[in-house]
Design a protein that fits this description.
The protein is an alpha/beta fold. It has a nine-stranded parallel sheet with strand order 6-5-4-3-2-1-7-8-9, sandwiched between helices. The radius of gyration is 15 Å and the shape is globular.
């Protein structure tokens, strides 16, 4: 059984979502100042990130397991188990439900999106402060992601209201575990986590 080790006890982790507000400038500004989890295609802006995470088996198939990424790779179990064997360096965790927070390091709550599951993953690593970037939970005009649209057959339309309802179920259990989450996204509709500027959050980051 795959489990996550507490490699970052008490540290700050920055999570790079794929929302349209994510900028190369912000990504570069966190380099070397905190642990970094790149979510899905955001690893293209941060090939040096500590971790690459995606819940989406279709995305892993599209990028053929992201062979150029040299950090740790994690996913949550979905779809046909045999497909994961194509990419032995992708560590697949158990899917233990949609909402809340999984405390056992063998699994993740999916929160219906990769960004939410990545928060659970950062907690497993031992992070005590989690900074969110690119967690827009909405489009900018027709743009759903900082890079434009996913190629077919990946989905570009997202049920943001459902995502945000699931994020809200994480707030209390994260607080109980002593984990602080700050939403530093330049633009966001996600209101359940405290807002902060990236500069202010990084000024007190411990990496």
């Amino acid at each position: 059984m795959t489990t996550v080790s507490k490699l970052w006890p008490g540290e700050t982790a920055v999570l790079l979502g794929c929302g349209p507000s994510l900028t190369r400038e912000d990504v570069e500004s966190v380099r070397g100042k905190a642990r970094v989890i790149a979510i899905n295609t955001s690893h293209e802006l941060a090939p040096w990130a500590d971790v690459l995470y995606s819940s989406d088996l279709g995305w892993w198939r599209q990028v053929n397991g992201a062979p150029g990424f040299t950090g740790l790779k994690y996913a949550v179990h979905s779809g046909t188990g045999r497909l994961w064997k194509l990419w032995p360096d992708v560590q697949v965790l158990a899917n233990t439900g949609t909402d809340g927070l999984e405390l056992k390091p063998h699994g993740l709550r999916t929160i219906r999106n990769s960004g939410g599951a990545a928060i659970n993953l950062a907690m497993h690593f031992g992070a005590r402060r989690i900074l969110l970037l690119g967690y827009d939970m909405g489009r900018r005009g027709r743009q759903a992601h900082w890079f434009g649209d996913h190629p077919n057959p990946l989905r570009n339309a997202s049920p943001y209201a459902e995502f945000m309802a699931s994020f809200a179920t994480m707030v209390k259990p994260l607080r109980t575990q002593g984990v602080t989450v700050l939403n530093c996204s330049r633009e966001t509709a996600l209101r359940c986590f405290q807002r902060a500027t990236l500069a202010d959050a990084l000024s007190t980051a411990v990496a």
